[in-house]
Write a structure and sequence with these properties.
Elements lengths: L3 H10 L7 E7 L2 E10 L2 E16 L5 E12 L2 E11 L3 E10 L2 E2 L1 E11 L2 E13 L2 E10 L2 E7 L7 E9 L2 E11 L2 E9 L5 E3 L4 H17 L17
Length: 238
């Protein structure tokens, strides 16, 4: 079967605009194909970008998986839709988002599929909007099997009621809440659905979401760092 990279090379080299060139070969430990404009300072990435690399893991580094990235550059900056995938025998992590001049700007979806005994399930999923690397609007998803909802105001500060509904079997066992007012937490409590009891707790939901953004999402976004202005995707607090 013809290699996908080679087929893409054949297609693009026939339709490249004047002044553009095409690269297909080694790139950061893997293989990439992309279009670029030669310049005095090197290559100005502009147009399609595809990347794939083998990864090894395990105590003896004897297990294999792969990273896969696709997107587009404009004037050496990430722009438009980008997809990042890290997959091995047991887990698949996927992130889809949009960039604008190197900053994450638009809808972002992150999910984790785990596999055991020929069955696959979603163990983590988040859906939210980002504006210039800052989370704004509603955040929804699944965290460790619990249905999650939160909200950030236009400035990127947590606002309103945040909650996670934890389940035992098919039934809700408890729901944990945090009530926020433009970046300041007002109260946090847990409601036990088996007896109706309400217990005040330490706020933790925002920290949990922040850790997913800072570590899990950034793990994928950092596969290819060229052309971005990322420090981290953030939620503001006071």
């Amino acid at each position: 079967m013809m290699d996908k990279f080679y087929r893409l090379w054949l297609s693009l080299t026939r339709h490249l605009p004047d002044g553009y060139q095409f690269y297909s070969g080694p790139y950061h430990g893997g293989k990439a194909v992309y279009t670029y404009i030669p310049s005095d300072g090197g290559r100005l990435f502009d147009g399609i970008f595809r990347y794939k690399s083998r990864i090894c893991y395990g105590a003896m580094m004897d297990k294999e998986g792969y990273d896969k990235v696709k997107g587009e550059f404009k004037d050496n900056r990430k722009n438009g839709r980008w997809t990042f995938l890290r997959k091995d025998q047991f887990i698949a992590k996927r992130l889809e988002t949009f960039f604008n001049n190197g900053a994450v700007d638009g809808d972002l979806r992150y999910d984790v599929q785990t596999r055991s005994f020929s069955k696959s399930k979603c163990s983590l999923a988040l859906f939210f909007k980002v504006r210039a690397n800052v989370v704004t609007g509603d955040i929804d998803g699944i965290i460790d099997g619990g249905a999650f909802h939160g909200h950030c105001d236009e400035g990127g500060y947590p606002d309103g009621r945040w909650k996670i509904e934890w389940k035992t079997g098919d039934s809700r066992s408890k729901t944990d809440y945090e009530e926020w007012e433009h970046g300041a937490v007002k109260r946090a409590y847990s409601v036990n659905h088996t007896n109706g009891n309400r217990t005040f707790i330490d706020a933790y939901i925002l920290r949990l979401v922040e850790s997913i953004l800072s570590y899990d999402c950034m793990e994928l976004l950092q596969i290819i760092r060229r052309g971005d202005s990322l420090g981290t995707i953030q939620i503001n607090t006071k």
